[in-house]
Amino acid sequence: MEYESFHSIILEAAEKGDLKKFKHVVEETKENLKKIRKTNSALALDAAANFHGGLMKQAPLHVACSHGRIEIVKYLLEKDVITDIQDVDGAQPLHCAANNGHVEVVKLLLSKGANPIIRESQADDTPLHWACVKGHLEVVKVLLTAMTPMMQDAVNHPNKVGMTPLHFAAGTGQVEIVEYLCNEKANVNKQDKDGNTPLHLACANLHLNVADLLVTKYHPQLDIKNTEGKLAEEMNDIYTDSIKSVLYQEQKAAGGDGKDELKKSMIGSILGSTMG
Predict the structure, then answer these.
(1) Which of 63, 66, 109, 202 has minimal Cβ neighbours within 10 Å of its Cβ?
(2) % of the chain at pLDDT higher than 90
(3) Helix axis angle, 103-111 to 70-78, nearest 10°
(4) Coiled coil located at which positions (predicted)?
(5) Can you name the residues that pair with 53 across neighbouring β-strands?
(6) What pLDDT, in 10s, does the model give residues 159-172?
């Protein structure tokens, strides 16, 4: 059987976590390659285990990490496969494990030298960005701990469009991760390339629990405008008028700068509008 015909079998075994079948097919492929290409065992094994297959051009390690198949991951790492191999989008196995919340696989990859600050090639996202957007708190903790000694201000590391892990978490309503990142000194006022702060994104997507947490506990600036000239409370077109009206009345009633009232009003007015 030709080398290429083994691809789908190997990838399927990696996805299902069938270690026995996976090992058998990889070893059989290795032996066939040794004969066909007249190469040594190491090079044959590398070719058998590090190929790219499927629409995403993923290696077996990508697939095993995506599905949390830790025994297959262990087997591949024992064979010294490449931990930073990339798929068609430049994502590495660590991205795949982080994206799917497989914390033990993440730990294993890091212990074998996987780079926690590596970026995929589409948006320059790190594995931490992917873990944040999916709400995998334990993975976030492990990755940030691994990143901190390697990078100054790792918690505020932006991607290609200036979005930090906190932007990702706030924009997708991941309350626990938002709180964790803020406690780790994430910058609540940091703006992406569109001028949006994490609070802008939380309000745009009506993640009211995130907005409430940010304004009551971490005190972001409420006067920051994005590149379209919008404040955070103006990010949702449906509720803009009612939010502005409540904020204005609260400011007037305060008889001063009304900062605390402004914060309470912003959350209360959005909550009232969405529940009405």
Answers:
(1) 66
(2) 53
(3) 10
(4) 19-46
(5) 58
(6) 999 999 999 999 99
